């Protein structure tokens, strides 16, 4: 398929994009560029549509950019050349089988050939939650006309929802991370206050007013107790969250029930020994203990508690202080993200199963075709091309060389004294010998247009495209030398004797008059070329074997007639 564009497709009207940005913004979504899961969804879209290209477009006032793409590199392009602008105002999916015939697109530079030649085109809007207009599109396109059925469009619409969910999930994750950072900053501030309290506990009374002011201005809850575990301090946030103030009269064993403390699941009452203040007193510190504060008639609040025991300068216990950070929003974000991820995973698994099923069917068909091809064209013993394959290949090469006026050469190869080899070592050993000789011939003849085939019995044939007489003689000598140097033992000839081959070569160069005279009937001439190579083979046998001869070295009466062939 030809390259469709020098820059990507996309665009849209600025007013639509401003409305879409009331929730998510272009900057929020742009941060997801290069996301592996987004790229995977784009590839699935191309696979579902059966198109060469797919992309997720993010639309801005002046430009559009690709957050993920398949079949071309991501980039930016002017919004004024957009193919997606037509459907953005309506927020509807669009599919056209041939953009060149569609009046909405036929004059677009990406369709009419000025920049590209898009034909099959479909675009699905990406609408953020809470928005009424799209902020981007999921597009699939190809440079050939085509059609998408209702099932394919439905799956693409599912993918558009999955893309929107993924982009929103990434945006919410970044927002959660910012919230977590802010919470960490607040917690760090509170821990600095705690450290100050622990280091200068003897000055606690003098600095009470200052400390209370600080505690009442921070957005985390701070609670403290004396060495007996009775609550002595609730800052303003703690009072608001518990809907109660610090009550030293409450028995430490009753703190969880008095202040409505539950495990992180929000349902299991917190055991007395797991109250963060008591843990800090007993263990010296508590870090990131998650629990839920759920006063009757008020929304539950998820918090994370960290604190430590405090001591006077002389080491005697002073009590404990704990900082509670509100993570309710973060936990809700996490729950929503997990739900979206599960939904996306379910849809992805369904698509993967369908794609896998189609691939399995294609693989079975390809395997069956390959098996049939082997049965028809491959010699079962040596793995080389068989005689029908040789005849077809030589016939096609003859016609091609006749058109071009280029030389064509054929070699005939025979294993010397092979009957004696079989008689001595048996037919199974003879079969193995033929396989090894076939492998050696294939190692020498490596060019893509050449062919090594089993002619029959212990005979092989080699077709050398665009090869003159000198080249054919050189290849024939290399074949003879390769088998000789392999040192395959031939016990039938005596101890120390080796398997050898003889080779005959013949070359044909079309004459000026042959093109018109024989262009439509290559069969007799290609057969005569094989016969000439066979005559050269027998000349090599007569010369003592383990050698090669070219038909050009023989007397004319020793060769078959090649009419108008040089």
Features of this protein?
17 strands, 6-stranded antiparallel β-sheet, Beta-Lactamase, Alpha-Beta Plaits, disordered N terminus, alpha+beta, 19% strand, 3 domains, disordered C terminus, 566 residues
Please provide a written account of the structure.
This protein is of the alpha+beta class and 566 residues long. It folds into 3 domains: 14-174, Beta-Lactamase, CATH 3.30.450; 200-326, 2-Layer Sandwich (Beta-Lactamase), CATH 3.30.450.20; 387-558, Reverse transcriptase/Diguanylate cyclase domain (Alpha-Beta Plaits, 2-Layer Sandwich). Helices cover 43% and strands 19% of the residues. The chain has a 6-stranded antiparallel sheet. A hairpin with a 2-residue loop joins strand 14 (451-456) and strand 15 (459-464). Helix 3 packs antiparallel against helix 5 (150-199) and helix 13 (427-444) packs across helix 14. The longest helix is centred in the N-terminal third of the chain and has 50 residues, at 150-199. The relative contact order is 0.07. The model is unreliable at 1-22, 512-524 and 561-566 (pLDDT under 50).
How are the elements arranged and paired?
Layout: H1 14-20, H2 26-30, H3 36-49, E1 53-59, E2 63-70, E3 76-78, H4 85-88, E4 94-96, E5 121-126, E6 136-141, H5 150-199, H6 208-217, E7 221-225, E8 231-234, H7 236-242, H8 255-258, E9 261-262, H9 276-283, E10 285-293, E11 301-311, E12 317-326, H10 328-377, H11 387-404, E13 408-415, H12 418-425, H13 427-444, E14 451-456, E15 459-464, H14 469-486, E16 501-508, H15 514-518, H16 523-542, E17 548-550
Parallel strand pairs: 16-17
Antiparallel strand pairs: 1-2, 1-6, 2-3, 4-5, 5-6, 7-8, 7-12, 9-10, 10-11, 11-12, 13-15, 13-16, 14-15
